[in-house]
## 1
Amino acid sequence: MLLIMLILLTGPRVISGLELGSSSKRGGSRRGKIESGKRALNVGLIVPFSNFLKKNYDKNIGAAVSNIKKNKYMWSNTYSLSDAQVHLEMMSINPSPTVILKNLCETFLENNVTTIIYMTNSEHFGRTTAASQYFLQLAGYLGIPVISWNADNSGLERRSQSRLRVQLAPSIEHQVSAMLAIMVRYNWKQFAVVTSDIAGHDDFIGAVREEVLRMKEDLNLKFFIQAEVKVTKEEHIDKLVDSETRIILLYSTKDEANNIMEWAREKELTGNNYVWIVTQSVIGESRKGTASAKPQFPVGMLGVSFETSSDALIDQIQNALSVFAEGVEGFLKNPRHANSTLSPRLSCMDDVSSNTEARWEEGESFYKYISGSRVRCSQCYGKPDISFLPDGTLRNAELNIMNLRRGMQGSSSQLQWEKIGAWRSWDKDNHGLDIQDIVWPGESHVPPQGVPEKFQISIGFLEEPPFINLARPDHVTGKCNVDRGIRCRVKPRSNETMTDKKNGTQDEFQCCSGFCIDLLAKMAEDLQFEFDLVRVDDPKWGTLVNGKWNGLMAALVAKKFDMVLTSLKINAEREAVVDFTAPFLESGTSILVAKRTGIISPTAFLEPFSVASWLITAFAAVQLSALIIFLFEWLSPS
């Protein structure tokens, strides 16, 4: 493929078997002519091959050109655009590189097209979309802008690396945004991402990460991706099982999703507590809000989709030509392009004049005006105008929210996707969602929690302010108010005094608060567990006495509690029999002394020694000094 690409750019010597001519001449129904004295604007149009739709293609091209003429653009005074100048080529789903090269050379370069409109609604997703990538790369190398509407693998937008392309179809980023909007609506914060080897699976994972980061920074919504799994065989599902996730985003082909869901069902990942949210590629072609489903898919699945029928594709022809017309208007309004002809001089032959160019010099500049255009969408009532982001993707997109449920007609076991709402990127209310009447997994009408079922654990504690404080419940309600903490059980001790009993410490239930209680509440929220908080009978931290533990340690070693909670110090003996969490407080050892009062005596420095000690020290110092002086004088030369 790379060899063919290089031959095109350098100019092949012979292209055998090619009969020059454009498909617009073969149609016979579009007879528009170039107006006298005006320059021709030529556009290339690639659509799916269909003899039955040929007349519809021609009809919509003619209608689109007529609408452009009604707008009376300034360029229409010097340039002419007729339906015959929209050079139509119908291409099969997976054309060979030779066919692509033939269409490019014969139809498009021969007719000096300034833009190519590339449209396909094929749902034959696969691991590669070599034909699409090859064509888009060739157009990019030649400097010809492309206006595309691609339902087949929107995830390949990044991989194609075509800098001169705008996309009229919703992008993979739009699909990810809609999926996370569903999760926000139902307060699902933990999820896993599952993909196959479908082309663009890395882009899908990247889009999920970017959207999670954007929601955290812009909306302060925190999500946790529990697992990212690429499933190509059954054992890969085990990683999904280990994550204990309940919400799963799936990006794969329809056939691959069939296998993945079969493996997931065997691992019990399709039960009533599991929600699978899938992309357009899994749902496939939809018409009027419905689509067929594979038998292995469980009821209650959710998905995002957009219309990919032939009618939807044909409707986009007018939008694509309108974007082109707006781009021409903006380009020619600029005085720097006053002398531009908007006619590339590209050729596949080497026996041409020296006026030909290897890459259209004005292509990049013209693309900027196409990507910056803003047009009213045809048959899009109440929707924003069509415009594009800097990377060429559609700025405002609408996606259908689909729900897998049993069909209303035919067999009761027949499953089908049905539209239950919509997601609109421009609508800020409810994060763009408008949903109703969802059938949840197990045909329930209540959404799953999205997290594993809560489990119960028993926790022992010892009170020690400020880590754990005890207080009596509210005397009116008998409950623990917000300022009093959470409910905990306090068993009476045999050594409690009468004063303790009068103060109510023998009550069965108290209110616990403090730093450790706050940590416990946060862990319970994040890890989804419930607990019973009980004060230990033996009010000791726990030491080893005659080979046996007492206090908290004894209760934990004897497995009376699943864990203990208090300001328990970590030491080697305790670490040998129990597991500690990471320490949350480092406390050093300090020595405190009373501060002296009054003025310090000038002779205070003499107080450490007695008078006799100081006299002996002075006598020794004098004798030593005399000896040193004597030796110095005796040994010095005269």
Note: Confidence is low (pLDDT under 50) at residues 1-29, 500-505.
## 2
Amino acid sequence: MDVDFSEYLSEVDLKEQEFHSVVREVVILALVSLVLYIGSFIFLGFLRRERDEDFEPYSDISDLWVYKISLWCCSFSLAVSVGAALLLPISTTSNEIRHRYPKSWYIKWLNASLIQGIWNLMFTLTNLALFAFLPFAYLLCESEGFIGAKRGLLPRAKETLVTLVLLSFLILGITFVLSAILDRDQGTITQLYNVYSFYLPFLYSCVSIVGVLLLLVCTPLGFVRLFSLVGERVTRPQFLVDLEERYSVARLEEQSLTRQLESYRSARLVNMAPLVAADGSALDNGELEEYLQKNLNTAQEKVEFYTRARTRSRWERTFMWPTAFLILLGLTGICLYLVFINIMLLVSGWRELPTHTANFDLGQTSLSTLGALGVVVEVIIIGYLLITSIVGLYSIPVIRKVLPKPRDTPISHLIINCGLFVILSSALPLLVKVLGITNFDLLGNYGKITWLRSYVIILFVNLVFGLGAALCFFKKVTQRAQAETVKRIKQFYKNVNWNFVKPVYNPSLPNVVSSPVRMKAE
């Protein structure tokens, strides 16, 4: 028989229990934060350049300390981005565990206060990383100290702090003006002092909408990029063909085209009769060399393709990469299905807009009709969206320039990448909630973001994501069929043009192409 002893506890015992709960939460958060920071520091140590040109040669000890401080700020920001990305997976998993085992003493520490504290802490740390640590690290790297001051760490830190304070006042003024434009009731002098309760949530609302828009662009690009990478390794049923035979044929074709091209360049022959290419087009004088060179390049690419295919094991060719392709296909299909259902519910009025939850009870109900299986699928979908957004982010040509390279990434690129990671990961819970992938409510200041109460913005985000992902997905999956169809149409048009149209306007041109008669050029 389960007995609730909390009714028999005195006031002192309740305060003691509350004190132990607070200490337990602080210890858990400190341990998790330490693990994330150490992991982020090790990861950045793998990426950073050993001797950065911005600090080499070290003229004094201040350059070395500036590099270390900037690296510490980047590690902190990367740890915050990982923590923000794990908010929803941890929350949904904790809710399902408490729902399945409500009376277990082993998971009593997993309560609503802990989850609420994690959300509040991540909101504060995200703002610190975006508006304090990363700007400080960048300005510290660029600082040289005030004019007339001695070179050292302290003068550079003073210049950085002064610049950061001036930048903060500038952003504060822009935020006040923008908030007054959007809501005149907020444009009062008393709001100038509500930095934490008003300006940080409003400023983060502006950053979050930028992050969501960036996710709307990056995620469909990530779908295409992942399908391209996996599709290149899914060789068409090669378990039914002999790769050695295909490789030998490709090598012979390459050698034959090489000899033809060399003999043509050495003899410089002129065509007296029209030549027809493989696609049915006629070759004029001077186009034969270009045509042979193009075929040679195609043959060389085919040789390289079969060379890479021969190095893969039969298990990898026939099972691993096809399975990976099917998994990507299934995850993308589930994402599109959930977004489509959410759009239908929003249009019909059966889906409520994301709102702030004041009273939060962990484990009262399950968040999925499928129970634990639904929560596992939801966590996998969230991780899949995060991976595709990062892959799509580096598919953008401008951002590709700052792509981290192992042991060869300067500190300035690390700062930029950490800033992008923080923006994407902090906007991920908002996007997942807006798309209806999760039923877990946004806690803390995340639920107070102003644009979440706009029906037009929510519907716009769903439509853009659904249409963009569907178009990219359809285009990539049917790319080969489309290319083959276009190729057949072009070949048919060229054949009709050569066999029926040209003889009408050029009756002297023979309709039957014989072997070319050649003569040496003078």
Note: The mean pLDDT is 77.
## 3
Amino acid sequence: MDHSEDQQKKRKLDEVSTENDMAAGEEIQADNATQHMDDDLATSGSGSKRPTDSNDKKKQRLNPENGETGKLEEEKKENGEANKSKDTSQEEDKSGDAVNKEEDKDESMQDASGDKDETNPAETHENKTSEEGNDTTKEETEFERTTKNKSKKDKNENPYKSLRWIVVKNDGRPESLIKLVALKSLFSKQLPKMPRAYIARLVFDQRHTAIAILSDDPAVKDTDEEVIGSICYRAFPEMRFAEIAFCAVSATHQVKGYGTKLMNLLKQEGARTGIEYFITYADNYAIGYFKKQGFSKSISMPKGRYQGLIKDYDGGTMMECYVHPSIDFTRIPEMLAAQRKFLLDRIRLKANSYKVYDPLPKDFSPHWEGVSRANEAAARAMAIPGMLDAGWTLTDLLAATGQGKDVDRAKMALKSELLAMVRKVEEQQFAWPFREPVDTTEVKDYLEVIKEPIDISTIDKRIRKGDHYKSKQMLYADLMLMVNNCKLYNEPGSTYVQCAVSLEKFLGSLFRDMGTRS
């Protein structure tokens, strides 16, 4: 193919030379036309003005090895030399044909190149889908991050803000009566030993107020199941105290912290309404709960403020809680956490736990002068660098090792056993006269008759000190002294003496393993 094209080009050159001899008179016009074509060829070589130059470059990229671009330029040069022997019109026609042919070729080559340069619609859709997927992933990530931040924020928020609770009393409104009926049902279920008529009378009494935590479930709205827990109390505003009548949490919501939240809400409401003390009579099973909520068996409120307003209950323990007016009881967990953090920060300022001491050398041996063999382990420990700086003494180490450790372990075991025994005695229904010391301001002649007064709370304090009772026999002696004091002061057949007899029988069974006889 290349050899035949070369022959055709030579034949054309011979024809052009013959025509140039015959048209010598038209050399001037031919020179002008030649100059014009040379300018065009020069412009096509620079690629700055000719619009088809970009297509020529595409053809070079598509076919870098077949030399098509070089052949086209040679044809342009040959056409320019041939046009020298023709007139201007023929030259323009031929040049126009050449340009048309070249444009046709350029268009065909541009179409071919366009097929490869155009982006595949399917690929575009996939890329777009991928980009949309990335955007969706970003949105989902941002949403998840927002949700996590919100959940963390919710955890840090005060839990009482999301709690649904009300203060209700018998004001005659239907919605209040509906809630009071639900409260009556709750107290009747959770306090089965309490007469239902008595519960209904106090709950619907207009002098009593109730605070209740309600469920968020719309399916149980205005039903008995809506009430999670409640406290019913009667306030005495003129004396600035209130008596708690009933306190209960639904069986399905117990051990979830509602009891503590309920009591804190009650204290908050009491502080808002000017209540200074809460008083209640707790049975044996409720004493532990009220202790955790800040109630104490020691009554600090002057007796003249509540005497004659509340009555005594047999088998119940009177307990009291002081309500500080400046404390936000719904933020107790936050305050405790802040106090703990403050204390730990202060401890770190004085602690030496961050110091690191060099290890002992291999040939190290402590000084054993004046140290008995039994104390060698403690002396060896005291020789470790940093022990003295940490405040340890030889006495401390002896108490934590060897015989001292065994003695402390025995003391702790005895202390735990004695506390368990006293707790069993305190939980008995007939133990209520012995739980607190006799009030000598009321019973004027008590100390004249009883020379060694004793009670369960005093015994409990002696045990917790850890040094008073050396054995269970000593505890049994104090408990029997308490029983005998009761028999000695009170008249035979009285309620107090009956309780003392019952307690004596119980102590006989409790200490039977020691060989004690009642």
Note: The chain is about 55% helix and 10% strand.
